[in-house]
Amino acid sequence: MPPPLTVTSSSPSPWIRRYRPASEGRTPLVCLPPAGASASFFAALSRDAPAAVDPWAIALPGREARLGEPAMTTMAVLADAVAGELVDRLDGPAVLLGHSMGGSVAHEVARRLEARAAGSVLHLVVGGRGGPATQRALRPDGVPDDAALVYGLAAAGDTPRELLEDPDVLDLLLPPLRADYALLAAYVPDDAPRLTAGITAVVGRDDPTTTEAGVATWAAATDGPFDARTAPGGHLFLAERTDEVVAAIAAAVAGAADRA
């Protein structure tokens, strides 16, 4: 088995946030957030993640600490940037985790890492996102207007209504969400290349946007092992309960060790 990833650069990165002390010698868990969100989405997961991993939450431009930077609206540009950052800082295999839109980003980043170095991705964990075939079928037709974006947030049921009625909150929520919808509207995933790394796909039992059949299509995206799981909660189940994803991460790391 390749050695665990370690940080090879001590300089701070605007792309990476840690919500627990850095743990050198452990396998980094690189986390990509859902549409409109950023690194803090993974604060709870970082706290609860298995001791074998070192969670790295990816901070996207145009939100939180990077609010003054332009958001990226093209998948290739975003995936290239994240992959380039990881290549510069890591020297071994990583577990990648992406939720909703972040699942697609994590998949594209994993492809780029594997293209640069075989064995560079230990496992991909995707939450609340159907596989590439499902994404093509459900690709958004352009960017919704603000009213439609707010309606979508309300329908998903994961954002408190009082926040959606606060103009100041919407001024922060909507710009990155618009940018991410533009990215998704322009993104047409393909079926090749398949990953060598295994994939685990997790769906919320009450998710109105993603189905068990949809996440099962991730099996076609890998030549490695595949596992599909169901977690309690809705689309953003990971914001409320981390246990199923934590179990998936632990199983992925243990499975890689068993196969070594």
TrEMBL record:
Protein name: Unannotated protein
InterPro entries given in the database record: AB_hydrolase_fold, TEII, TesA-like, Thioesterase
Alphabetically ordered keywords of this record: Hydrolase
One GO molecular-function entry: hydrolase activity
SMART domains according to UniProt: PKS_TE (SM00824)
The organism of origin for this protein: freshwater metagenome
GO biological process: lipid biosynthetic process
Annotated SUPFAM superfamilies: alpha/beta-Hydrolases
Database matches in PANTHER family: S-ACYL FATTY ACID SYNTHASE THIOESTERASE, MEDIUM CHAIN (PTHR11487:SF0), THIOESTERASE (PTHR11487)
Domain annotation Thioesterase TesA-like: ranges: 30-257
Record family assignment: Belongs to the thioesterase family.
